[in-house]
């Protein structure tokens, strides 16, 4: 399953859609006003399918992941000098690649779950995501949104 994230230019809150390769919006990500970056993820039927909540203090870059109102795990930016990395406590997943250049893969064991790539030469941030099992799409979207929130926070 191929997904595309195209963020809107100059928005007050982080609100954007995630499309399939036919241009249909499959998910809507809504920024929730509060301390830190918090998001709600809706499916194409406008049903809440997940939440991403940044833990306080915000500078630690830890995001908790919720599905159906239940805590499922977290993603946390690790403080490293040379190469940025993330600790993931979610579905036994791990990440490889250059996360801050938006060229990385998500694995469960030796099996590749998804890939994310930033598309160059676009006015707004645009990413393509390959999800290999459609049932993982919501989970992959939530991780990608959390990583993007860390990137945006560090640019400020």
Structure characterization notes:
With 156 residues, this protein is mainly β. The protein has one domain: Porin (Beta Barrel), CATH 2.40.160. The chain is built from one helix and twelve strands, in the order E-E-E-E-E-E-E-E-E-E-E-E-H. A hairpin with a 7-residue loop joins strand 11 (111-118) and strand 12 (126-131). The termini are far apart.
- Strands of the biggest beta sheet: in what spatial order? 8-7-6-5-4-3-2-1-12-11-10-9
State the CATH superfamily name: LURP1-related
Please give the number of β-strands.
Answer: 12
Can you tell me the overall shape? globular
Beta-strand residue percentage: over 45%
Low-confidence stretches: none
Structural class of the helices, strands and pairings?
Answer: mainly beta
Q: How confident overall, as mean pLDDT?
A: 84
Radius of gyration: 14 Å
Provide the CATH topology.
Porin
Distance between the termini: 33 Å
Q: Oligomer, anyone?
A: single chain
Number of helices, counting only DSSP H or I runs of 4 residues or more: 1
**At the first level of CATH, what is the class?**
Mainly Beta
Number of domains: 1
The helicity comes to 10-25%
Biggest sheet descriptor: 12 strands, antiparallel
Order of helices and strands: EEEEEEEEEEEEH
- Do you know the CATH architecture? Beta Barrel
